[in-house]
């Protein structure tokens, strides 16, 4: 069998020419074996019909195997010549023939250096695309976080609006002023509570000393 990869022919036919020749060889060889079995069967029938024939089936089988070996040796020689002719004249694409899908290379030829430059540029573009995709994902996550914060702020504003409405209903005036007074009152109460706690501690210490 030929060792030439014949890649261009494989691209055109969709199969390697060597594979095609191997299948043809196997088909011819199988047919040869089957034919010899048929011949052997016919010979056995003919010999059985001859009275007093002393040729045994095992002797017939040995003769069949020898003849099969003879035929196979000659077949291999003939097939080698047929394979050479078919691979050169039938399954071979001449060097000056260009397949339709490869004509673009003839219109836009490029060197190995140019091809490598295109590969490098493509790799850079892929890295940029991945970086942009990651940045877009981060922006989407930040946007979702901002939406959640906005929703919480809107809830707080609604709460303040409700408090302001309650203050107005009870004649408390401006909610901001009321809230400031409430804060001051709360601070005063905290100071009073702290003063009471300190006095209570002093009294306890005094009782313990007594």
UniProtKB/TrEMBL annotation:
Record keywords, A-Z: Cell cycle, Cell division, Centromere, Chromosome, Coiled coil, Kinetochore, Mitosis
Positions in coiled-coil regions: 108-156
BP GO annotations: cell division; kinetochore assembly; mitotic sister chromatid segregation
GO cellular component terms listed in the entry, alphabetical order: MIS12/MIND type complex; nucleus
Domain of life: Eukaryota
Cellular localization per UniProt: Chromosome, Centromere, Kinetochore
Pfam families according to UniProt: Mis12
Keyword presence, Cell division: yes
Transmembrane segments: none
Predominant location: nucleus
InterPro entries listed in its UniProt record: Centromere_Mis12
Heme keyword on record: no
PANTHER family hit by this protein: PROTEIN MIS12 HOMOLOG
Family statement drawn from the similarity comment of this UniProt entry: Belongs to the mis12 family.
UniProt protein name: Protein MIS12 homolog
Provenance organism: Struthidea cinerea
């Amino acid at each position: 069998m030929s060792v030439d990869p014949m890649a261009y022919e494989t691209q055109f036919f969709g199969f390697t020419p060597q594979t095609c020749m191997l299948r043809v060889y196997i088909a011819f060889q199988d047919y040869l074996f089957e034919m010899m079995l048929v011949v052997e069967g016919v010979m056995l029938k003919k010999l059985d019909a001859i009275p007093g024939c002393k040729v045994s089936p095992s002797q017939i089988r040995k003769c069949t195997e020898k003849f099969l070996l003879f035929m196979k040796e000659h077949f291999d020689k003939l097939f080698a010549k047929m394979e050479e002719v078919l691979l050169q004249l039938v399954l071979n694409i001449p060097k000056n023939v260009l397949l339709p899908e490869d004509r673009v290379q003839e219109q836009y030829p490029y060197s190995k250096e140019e091809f490598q430059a295109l590969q490098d540029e493509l790799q850079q573009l892929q890295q940029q695309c991945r970086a942009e995709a990651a940045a877009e994902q981060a922006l989407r996550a930040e946007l979702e976080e901002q939406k959640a914060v906005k929703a919480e702020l809107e809830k707080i504003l609604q709460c303040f609006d409700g408090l302001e409405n309650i203050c107005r209903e009870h004649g408390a005036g401006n909610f901001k002023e009321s809230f400031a007074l409430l804060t001051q009152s709360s601070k005063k109460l905290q100071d009073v509570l702290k003063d009471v706690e300190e006095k209570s501690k002093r009294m306890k210490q005094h009782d313990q000393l007594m």
